[in-house]
Amino acid sequence: xxxxxxxxxxxxxxxxxxxxxxxxxxxxxxxxxxxxxxxxxxxxxxxxxxxxxxxxxxxxxxxxxxxxxxxxxxxxxxxxxxxxxxxxxxxxxxxxxxxxxxxxxxxxxxxxxxxxxxxxxxxxxxxxxxxxxxxxxxxxxxxxxxxxxxxxxxxxxxxxxxxxxxxxxxxxxxxx
Length: 176
Fold this sequence. Notes:
This protein has one domain (about 1-165): Gcn5-related N-acetyltransferase (GNAT) (Aminopeptidase, 3-Layer(aba) Sandwich). About 30% of the residues lie in helices and about 30% in strands. The protein contains 5 helices and 8 strands; from the N terminus they run ββαααβββαβαββ. It has helices at about 20-25, 30, 40-60, 105-120, 135-140; strands at about 1-5, 10, 65-70, 75-80, 90-95, 125-130, 145-150, 160-165. The strands form 2 sheets. A 5-stranded antiparallel beta sheet has the order 1-2-3-4-5, sandwiched between helices. It has a 3-stranded antiparallel beta sheet with strand order 6-8-7, with helices on one face. The protein is globular. The two termini are about 25 Å apart.
């Protein structure tokens, strides 16, 4: 699977990407706002790649590796993920600190929302983050997602929840 934007190349993860994902998810700056979980190992990174490939085959979406088009540098991952036990689809993204503040997160989020609504015909996509993760909720806002409030999610403390719906979402700068 591949999604391209003006500056980014999003593509399916391969086992060769496992060390890159390991580096991404071992970084304290990246983990700071994530749910506590077991330490990332190369085996866990490989399992994550395999899970993504299965999800992509079954559902037509998964988290993709994100690289810059010009230099081909790995900068993170972004994609859609089904929320277990519900019909909700969540937009997820994680980037290396060197990629923060450059608009890459918004660019990839807009591409994913467009793909979700136009190609996959998904009705609604959500995204959540803890209120302290200003960079993350700014991506959601700039991507055209609508803030719907604070709520408990995944047993976490209160998180900010954003929604985009196929019938009303439009890429930033355009009306639906």
